[in-house]
Every structure is written in C-alpha cells, then in structure tokens.
Amino acid sequence: MTDSDRGRTGAREFDLILFGATGFTGRLVAEYLVKKRPSLRWALAGRSFGRLERVRNELATLEPSAKELPLLVGNSMDRAAMDRLVRRTRVLCTTAGPYARYGSALLGACAEQGTDYCDLTGETHWVREMIDTHHARAVETGARIVPSCGFDSIPSDLGVLMLHEALVARGGRLAEAHYRVLRMKGAASGGTIASALHAAERMGDPSVRRVLADPYALNPEGARSGPGPEDSFRPRKDPETGRWLAPFFMAPVNTRVVRRSNALLDQAYGHEFRYDETVDVGAGFTGLARAAMTSAGMVMSGAVAFAPVRMLAARLLPAPGEGPSREEREGGWFDIELLGVGTAGERVRARVGAKQDPGYGATSWMLGESALCLAQDELPRRGGLLTPASCMGMKLVERLRAIGMTFQVESAPQ
C-alpha cells in the first residue's frame, strides 16, 4: 500500500488543508468550505498565525463551530516544512500565488508524500516546470496533482469534456471545439495582478517565452504537436454566426490545459482535435470596433514585460490581499458557449456559466468543490500532474451543477 493509499483510507489527520487562507481568494474559499464542514476534517494554513486567527474569527461569525478549526503555520518556500505539513492531510488546496514564486516546494512535497493537490494557477510556464520535475514521482506515489481549478481552466476543460461525452453517447466522436465568451462581468484582485506581473517578469527568459508560445506546451512527451492553430490576437468573424470575435485573454492558458487533457485521456478527442477560445463581441461595425479595441489591448498588455511598466502597474493597481467587494462579486456573472463538431459533422452545444464574479466568487466555488471532490469522491486511481477533466471529470461537473452553476449540453443545428 502506498502512502497515498493509506491517506485515502483515513490514516491522515485531515481530509483537507487550505493553504494561503489569509489571502483574498483564500478567505473566500475558506468561507465556502466552512459551509461544508460537518463531514470534513480540515484546517487553515499559512505563514502567519495571527492572520490565520483573524480569518478563523471571521469564519466563526458565519459558523460558530469554525472556532475549533486547527491553524497550521509554515513557510511555503521551506520544503522540509511543507513535507511535514502535507503528510498530515489527504488533500492540499492552495491559493498562495504567484505559484512560480511560492508554490514549487508545496507542490513538490505533495508529489513526494502522495498527497492530492489543487490550485488556481494560470502560470503555464510554471506548470510545465512542475510536470518536468514532479510528474513521474507523483505517478509513483499516487498523488493527484491538479493545477488550474478555477476560472482558469474549469469552464474550458470540463466544457470540452461535456461535448465529448455527449457525442460519444450519440455514437460519435469529438473532432473540434470552439469556446465563445458571450457575457462576463467581474473584477480583478491584487493576487491575480501580482501573478500576471510575475509572469511578465519571467518573459525575459527565452525558455519561458518558448513555452508560452507553444500551443502544446503542457502535453506529454510524444504528444506535443497537432493541427490546432497558434494563438491569434486579430479580430475575426465567426463562420457560424457572422458575429465578430476578439481574442480571449485567458485562451493561452486554457487551450494548453484542454490539449493536455486530450493527451492524458489517451487522445479521447482525437489526434487531429482542434480547439480555440475567443470572445463574442457582437455584429456589424460595433462588433468590429469592439474586437479591434480588444485586440489592441491584448497587444499593448505585452508592455508589462518591460520593468518600468511593471513597476508603474504595481503602484497603480490593487495590491495582493485586495479585491472586489461582496456586492461586486455577487453582481458578477459569466456565460460561455462551446460548440462541438464530431468527426461526421454532427454538432452539439454546451453552456457553462454562473451568477457570480468569475475570477473570485465562482472561482472560490470551483476550487472548493475541486478540493472536496478529491477528498470525498471515488476517482480514477492515477497519479501525476493531471487536469480537472482527466482527474475529476464528470464527478466535478455534477458537483458544480449541484451548487447552481450552469453545465448544460444540447444538440445544435446541423
């Protein structure tokens, strides 16, 4: 029996540890989990006991039993401390980013100790580094390491999986999928901005630039090529609707995760699978103008690769620990449509959405349910650096439907 097997049969002290609980998103995930606490043995973890204690006191105003939550202190850059921490739990859920700066020791400890893991990273270059460093060991220990369990990249990854399942149920097979953001309202937190600025800083490294430019950057060895188009920042018309499409700022992250899922699922979507993500900005001249403005904004955002621009942005934008108010989060939403096309030309359509700010309200739901899925559900016994679709799949879809998120599939006009 492996160490991870022993943990999953109840030998470990905790079902779940939430690391980074004092950060903005960490507090939101803690609030979400405290509502699920009756059947869960869990703890809050971070670098400061005082800040953890304040979070616990806030949670106790929502649920009095939260006063008994254990508080665990450790520095995420101290590998020995992280080894000790993760040996105590079956699942480690972390919101402490930027992950390329603060996450490597923690993820590595989980891979070594056979502890399941989930996070919110959108840092493709870091995920590639973690695959290269820890995937083989996680396979050996049975640790299910699942990055990108928030708005990056659950709507994309599980949306495509739903299309695949729907076509298979009809006797078909998915050949291509097209993700369109129809409507979205949300705000950014300081933590997300810090991650973006840190990623921009790494752009000075040619090896990082190569990873970010590669559409198959996260695929396993031997599966790093295919027909999928490279990312485009130019406006274009949707051949299905005639409406204008603009580049989606999260596509360079999400598309890599979806392609890794296909590879990890033994090319379930096919070796010639095509996938893209864009924003539907409307029809006519107004749509074209919006698409052009979005494209220009994407191009200009590359200026943060220059140190003076990063320094200015860091001074003007929200700092880590800051983010949208409860009213702003509850007033947000997102509505995404995915069109799947089968190998015989058959079509199926999926909708994914939530009535919450996508990056914080809905993300805290998605990460919380991912952690609970790893802790409580019967899942395939495979370890490694996985994806939401290849690890949790339709089990996670069912959980997210149950809490009020939209995950629907319907036939599309042929």
TrEMBL record:
Pfam families reported in the protein's UniProt record: Sacchrp_dh_NADP
Protein name (database record): Saccharopine dehydrogenase NADP-binding domain-containing protein
Species of origin: Archangium lansingense
Start and end residues of each stretch annotated as Disordered: 216-238
Residue ranges annotated for the Saccharopine dehydrogenase NADP binding domain, each copy included: 17-146
Lineage: Bacteria, Pseudomonadati, Myxococcota, Myxococcia, Myxococcales
Gene3D superfamilies: NAD(P)-binding Rossmann-like Domain
Domain of life: Bacteria
